């Protein structure tokens, strides 16, 4: 039996129908930007084919539930049912051949994908005796068959994409004819879009979407520009169920309307400012009365007595008994030891730690930092190598490292200390920590740089143990 559904008219005035029986075997893809008339097209197809074939609509926005009033579709609010109930419902829909609109309006994106996956899988897994022909319309199909990962979990994305793939690739033998609509072909999984043989391409503006639409319509790339110029409600149609060559069709009128409509400009209300404020701030039945917070008075300026007190406290700190050089050196060594012992200090820059150094020295009775930032950076590198005081013992090592930047002094002195004491060679982790980093690769590149300056010589024996010598000083670490 041949049933033709009148979709609209061509520019020549000729009626453009869709062969419903051919559509059941070849599936349909509809594309168009928001406002291009996709939902109007789907509504026209559903209204004109109602009573001829079972219709199953997956409706993310709840726009098609109005079909229930005129054409007898059963509207199902997915938010009121669990996943098992949805799957059981799908099986009964196939058994009893009832036309249904599944509204996903009350669900978040992940919930919509879970529900659609369960519903489509149950339709697909119905017993063979229930494989009756049905149109399965999926609006906003890019939500359920995305081309890439999104904010939902990978498990949910795979389930939804698998159900959509089954619908479009293997649904024909089970009587399921997929009709999918999308705003953007680039966001729709290619293996889902590629299974459709009929196309209705509406207005779109992005070059990538126009190019894909032109490819599907068999048009040359330079002809793709006309897709951008299509008026609202007009589509380029192609496919065995519609036409053998691309033809423009203006979709005809519909008898039902969506619950949500395109916004229209309406005049703003005319009311005095005080009346509007009364409407906005009027208390509700069970709401507390809104009382605006009184403006705060500006903070009073400090009194003369307070300023004098602050000045005297600063002067007392500056006139505190001065520390001797030995006492100051001891305080600096103690503060450096405390800073390097802090686990969080290893990853902090010297300029940041300098502020901590100044505060700790002040708390210890040294009002002004005894080291400037460059000197502190050098002493911090020494401290990270376990050397907290300057003395003649380390003068040869410091002289050997004179050509190195101050931040590289720590790793060199760490090696020098192990070489002087004959202890095992420091690990890459220890060298990285002395450099203020956690990157082992950076530590290895640092060793290569120091070795390129002829300051150290690294050796690795056959068992993989490393030792480092400092030829200028005649010191060598033990192998480790």
TrEMBL record:
Q: Which GO terms describe its molecular function?
A: ATP binding
Q: Where is the Helicase HerA central domain?
A: 15-75
**What top-level branch of life does the organism fall under?**
Bacteria
Tell me the keywords, alphabetical order: ATP-binding, Nucleotide-binding
Give the Pfam families listed for this entry: DUF87 (PF01935)
Stored PANTHER family = HELICASE MJ1565-RELATED (PTHR42957)
The protein's name is: ATP-binding protein
Look up and give the organism this protein is from.
Sphingomonas rhizophila
């Amino acid at each position: 039996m041949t049933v033709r559904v009148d979709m609209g008219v061509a520019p020549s005035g000729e009626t453009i129908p869709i062969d419903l029986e051919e559509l059941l075997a070849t599936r349909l893809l509809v594309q168009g930007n928001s406002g291009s008339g996709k939902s109007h097209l789907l509504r026209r197809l559903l209204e004109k084919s109602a009573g001829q074939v079972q219709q199953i609509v997956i409706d993310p926005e709840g726009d098609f539930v109005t079909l229930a009033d005129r054409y007898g579709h059963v509207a199902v609010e997915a938010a009121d049912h669990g996943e098992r109930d949805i799957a059981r419902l799908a099986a009964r829909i196939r058994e009893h051949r009832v036309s249904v609109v599944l509204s996903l309006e009350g669900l978040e994106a992940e919930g919509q994908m879970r529900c659609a996956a369960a519903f489509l899988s149950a339709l697909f897994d119905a017993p063979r005796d229930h494989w009756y022909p049905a149109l399965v319309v999926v609006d906003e199909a890019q939500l359920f068959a995305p081309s890439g990962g999104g904010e939902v979990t990978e498990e949910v994305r795979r389930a939804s994409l698998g159900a959509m793939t089954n619908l479009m690739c293997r649904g024909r033998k089970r009587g399921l004819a997929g009709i999918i609509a999308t705003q953007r072909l680039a966001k729709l999984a290619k293996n889902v879009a590629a299974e459709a043989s009929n196309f209705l391409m509406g207005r779109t503006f992005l070059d990538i979407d126009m190019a894909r639409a032109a490819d599907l319509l068999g048009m040359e790339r330079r002809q793709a520009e006309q897709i951008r110029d299509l008026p609202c409600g007009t589509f380029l149609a192609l496919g065995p169920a519609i036409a053998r060559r691309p033809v423009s069709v203006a979709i005809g009128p519909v008898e039902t309307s969506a619950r949500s409509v395109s916004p229209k400009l309406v005049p703003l209300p005319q009311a005095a400012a005080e009346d509007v404020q009364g409407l906005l701030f009027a208390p509700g039945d069970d709401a507390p009365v809104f009382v605006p917070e009184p403006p705060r008075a500006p903070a009073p300026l400090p009194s003369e007595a307070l300023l004098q007190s602050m000045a005297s406290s600063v002067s007392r700190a500056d006139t505190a008994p001065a520390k001797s050089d030995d006492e100051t050196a001891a305080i600096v060594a103690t503060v450096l030891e405390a800073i390097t012992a802090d686990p969080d200090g290893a990853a902090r820059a010297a300029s940041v730690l300098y502020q901590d150094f100044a505060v700790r020295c002040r708390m210890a009775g040294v009002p002004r930092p005894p080291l400037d930032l460059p000197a502190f950076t050098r002493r911090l590198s020494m401290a990270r190598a376990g050397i907290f005081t300057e003395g003649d013992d380390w003068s040869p090592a410091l002289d050997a490292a004179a050509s190195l930047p101050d931040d590289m002094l720590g790793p060199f002195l760490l090696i020098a200390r192990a070489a002087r004491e004959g202890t095992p060679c420091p690990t890459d982790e220890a060298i990285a920590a002395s450099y203020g980093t956690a990157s082992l690769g950076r530590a290895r590149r640092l060793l290569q740089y120091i070795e390129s300056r002829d300051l150290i010589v690294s050796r690795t024996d056959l068992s993989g143990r490393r030792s480092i010598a400092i030829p200028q000083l005649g010191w060598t670490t033990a192998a480790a």
